[in-house]
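Customer escalation, tier 2.

The customer says the design service returned an amino acid string that "doesn't look like it belongs to this structure." They asked us to rerun it and document both sides in this ticket. The original structure tokens are below, unchanged.
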């Protein structure tokens, strides 16, 4: 099982042949457990967050052209709660992302993770990263941004989400989308990108990348990266940092030495407990500092 999926995120930008924009492919429900391509290794200790004191569930989110799958969680009593969008890795909304949603709910948030791949297929049922890449390459950035907007509207309509206190966080592919959404939605209070690629080759579906939209960032962004990430070179993180400083944008970067890509993915060998726990606390502190609390 490859530990560093960031190279795969870069690779999908070279795949052509976008899906028909008129078709909307969506599965009836999320498959239980982990995506087939990244089942935990034998002996791997996986962090599991229970649902005690929470309201959770799979949902259908109305988006342009159809319904997207999603998963939400929030405290069972009280509310409305400050809201956090959780953007999945390349493996979509499988068990690890659902657990992240529950962790945020335990911290007092309304958290929701939409499946941004609902338009193109169920990547959770695919067995290899080579099968996944050409599928996710068909997702248009503008569709992803619109689906995130629709997710915010869905959350607001629940009566349990205070979307005036809105944050976003994402991992790997979702880290890239986090940067892009921070440049898209003027109502965001704060964003936290976990090891999201910031540079890349332009394509039909991804005409720009985070480094290209720095001037449009609408909120403070915290970037969490591994110093030993072989797919996201440290110099690209430095480029992003310099671009933000030049544009006068509020942001911070935490680069953990000797730490690989996907260090928060506790179901994979890339997991590093100390950096993951430290980064989680930094994320919560970032949201609180900038009004997502």
């Amino acid at each position: 099982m490859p530990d560093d999926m960031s190279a795969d995120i870069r690779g999908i930008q070279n795949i052509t042949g976008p899906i028909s924009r008129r078709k909307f492919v969506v599965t009836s429900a999320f498959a239980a457990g982990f995506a087939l391509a990244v089942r935990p290794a034998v002996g791997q200790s996986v962090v599991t967050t229970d649902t005690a004191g929470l309201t959770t569930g799979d949902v259908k989110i109305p988006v342009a052209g159809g319904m997207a799958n999603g998963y939400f969680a929030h405290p069972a009593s009280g509310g409305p709660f400050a809201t956090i969008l959780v953007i999945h890795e390349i493996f979509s909304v499988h068990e690890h992302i659902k657990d992240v949603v529950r962790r945020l709910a335990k911290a007092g948030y309304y958290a929701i993770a939409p499946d941004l791949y609902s338009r193109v297929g169920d990547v959770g049922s695919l067995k290899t990263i080579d099968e996944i890449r050409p599928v996710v390459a068909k997702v248009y950035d503008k569709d992803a941004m619109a689906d995130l907007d629709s997710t915010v509207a869905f959350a607001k309509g629940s009566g349990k989400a205070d979307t005036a206190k809105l944050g976003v966080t994402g991992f790997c592919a979702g880290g890239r989308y986090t940067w892009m959404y921070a440049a898209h939605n003027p109502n965001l209070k704060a964003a936290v990108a976990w090891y999201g690629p910031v540079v890349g080759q332009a394509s039909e579906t991804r005409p720009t990348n985070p480094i290209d939209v720095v001037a449009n960032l609408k909120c403070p962004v915290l970037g969490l990266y591994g110093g030993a990430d072989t797919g996201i070179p440290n110099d690209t993180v430095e480029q992003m940092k310099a671009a933000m400083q030049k544009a006068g944008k509020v942001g911070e970067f935490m680069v953990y030495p000797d730490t690989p890509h996907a260090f928060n993915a506790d179901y994979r060998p890339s997991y590093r407990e100390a950096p993951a726990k430290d980064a989680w606390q930094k994320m919560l502190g970032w949201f609180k500092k900038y009004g997502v609390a």
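Tier 2 assessment: The sequence is consistent with the input. The longest strand covers residues 161-171. Strands lie at 54-63, 66-75, 81-87, 110-114, 161-171, 190-194, 221-226, 251-256. Sent an explanation to the customer and offered a walkthrough call.
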